[in-house]
Amino acid sequence: MRNVKNPLQSTSISLISLIVASAVLTQAPSLHAVITVDASNTVYYDSANNSYFFYYDQNRSQDTNVQGTFLETSSTGSNTLISGYNDGDGTGNTPGDNSYADVGESLTLAQAGSITYGGNNYVAFYLEANQKGKDDGTPGNNYYDITKLQIQTSSSPTIASYNPDDFNASSTNMAYYYNSSDPDNETIRLYYGAGNSNWDIVLYVPENSFVLNDTDPNVPDAEETYIQFYVEYHNTAGADYWGYDRGADIIPEPSSTLLVSLGAMIGLLRRRR
Cα separation of 68 and 126, whole Å? Predict the structure, then answer.
């Protein structure tokens, strides 16, 4: 576990903008609203899951702390709704219902690690999207448009098959659940950046949302708790990647920004005296 600082050093975030953003993000979303995360809308708080989507600063988009890809989905070259999950078998395109997954590596909670923000621990999932087209509202054009995103834990490193209809928000092992077809849900549009090896968006899920497995008393629970990650989204262009980062940073807490602002004010007053 690491304590985090500010990765968005090139992004100026004032205390006022943080307060306004917090007020907006805590309001109930409107029916079928579109939630966009990009350079103009850098953060979205998913109140249903106590989770955060962040725009990942492009100056750090090739951060070597990102440990690697656990899920890679194929390029379709057209506007196609595709799905994929990290089946953990080490090979691509298997089984048949996971045909768009080129890479689906197993991932334990211990591997993913956690970061600390606001006194709470989070697990970070990084998206590198490669989409293109006119930003005309068509699903997948210039954005990674999520239809379903489900993250749960298991004692098994592999998944024989995945039927998203079998999983719902009430599942005891569900760490994160999003389904655009649920009543009053929004479309989540995630920014795509500057091509390969550039991480565009990061999703922070509370560590305490992950149900631990304890099958062997001689093995730490986090090492035998596997993360099963399933996503459905619209693809228009290149392959897309999900990775993890044990050393990730996130934007400063409002309290930290306040302290910095107060420190600057005190320094200014001293100089005037």
Answer: 9
Using left for φ > 0, alpha for ψ between -120 and 50, and beta otherwise, residue 266 falls in alpha
**Assigned domain for 92 exists:** yes
pLDDT at 29 over 90: no
- Strand ranges (E), 25-156: 34-37, 43-46, 51-55, 66-73, 80-85, 101-104, 115-117, 120-128, 143-154
Rounded (5°) CA angle 249-250-251: 135
Cα–Cα distance, 23 to 174 (Å, whole number)? 28
Q: What is the CA radius of gyration of the chain?
A: 19
Rounded distance between C-alpha atoms, residue 104 and residue 92, angstroms: 7
Residue 1 maps to a domain: no
C-alpha–C-alpha distance, residues 254 and 25, integer Å: 14
pLDDT tens column, 157-196: 988 878 777 777 778 899 999 998 887 777 899 988 766 6
Structure tokens at 170: 């009430």
Q: How many domains does the chain have?
A: 1
| pLDDT for 95 | 59
Q: Considering the domain boundaries, does residue 6 fall inside one?
A: no
What pLDDT does residue 64 have?
A: 65
At residue 103, what is the residue type? Answer: V
| Residue with token string 């719902």 | 168
Do 107 and 229 touch, CB atoms closer than 8 A?
yes
Confirm whether 4 is domain-assigned: no
Residues 6 or more apart whose Cβ sits within 8 Å of residue 86: 70, 71, 101, 104, 105, 106, 107, 159, 227, 228, 229
The amino acid sitting at 240 is D
Q: Return d(Cα 224, Cα 24) in angstroms, integer.
A: 39
Q: Which domain holds residue 106?
A: 14-272
